[in-house]
């Protein structure tokens, strides 16, 4: 792994120091204030934080922990995994890269790329003994407080597309890919492998809806036959995600269930630290079983 694995915290600190020492040039132009910046409010129980909604300003205003995939959501494999198990992980997760660890995620060794597995054990047949460590590529390590612009430049310089977020005690807090960082500037990137989500909601079964956070609130109210904003005074909310955000006063985490005075429940199906992506709407007190 070289200098990317000998001490997670120190490696992250060195990465940040190396980039910050480069004055002017690329970073100076990149971080120059833009003339127009769209601002959105992020409410918490303590205060209201004003943050840019997109553009180059996010590279200096957002930290790694603002965009990282939280530890419980990280898909990773142990260094003792066999080929069939690894293929199953790639197939089930849909990812092309996953971290590799020794015993626990707090002992990361590197990452494995689907392309390397396919080239050595797929297209050419299973002619070689499988060893995940021999195919590993290095990882970057970053502290939670590192600006995402700094990490992005480090990824470009080292030609590495994945970083683990390391806390002050050397434990793994989250994971960031280069795509996560770029999306903070240009918006969500969908490739040919991403599932199409043209429909704002789908009725999974009677009375249970899987809803995109961007779904129009008024249109979905007509489906339910309920005025979901009846008890609020905020007329600026026009999406389902905005409604749930208003009810909770923050960005809820995946799996959390937010109750509405009408009796409907909003289960968070997909979310990142900054926004809600997808939710399940139903009128029971408990999340319905999938079937």
From TrEMBL:
Organism of this sequence: Paramylibacter kogurei
Protein family: Belongs to the UPF0053 family. Hemolysin C subfamily.
PROSITE patterns linked to this entry: CBS (PS51371)
Signal peptide: none
Transmembrane feature ranges: none
Cited Gene3D superfamilies: 3.30.465.10, CBS-domain
Listed Polar residues bias regions: 1-19
An example Gene Ontology molecular-function term: flavin adenine dinucleotide binding
InterPro entries, alphabetized: CBS_dom (IPR000644), CBS_dom_sf (IPR046342), FAD-bd_PCMH-like_sf (IPR036318), FAD-bd_PCMH_sub2 (IPR016169), Ion_transp-like_CBS (IPR044751), Transptr-assoc_dom (IPR005170)
Phosphoprotein is among the record's keywords: no
Pfam families: CBS, CorC_HlyC
GO cellular component, one term: plasma membrane
Keywords: CBS domain, Repeat
Annotated CBS domain residues: 70-127, 135-192
Region (Disordered): 1-21
Name used for this protein in its record: Magnesium/cobalt efflux protein
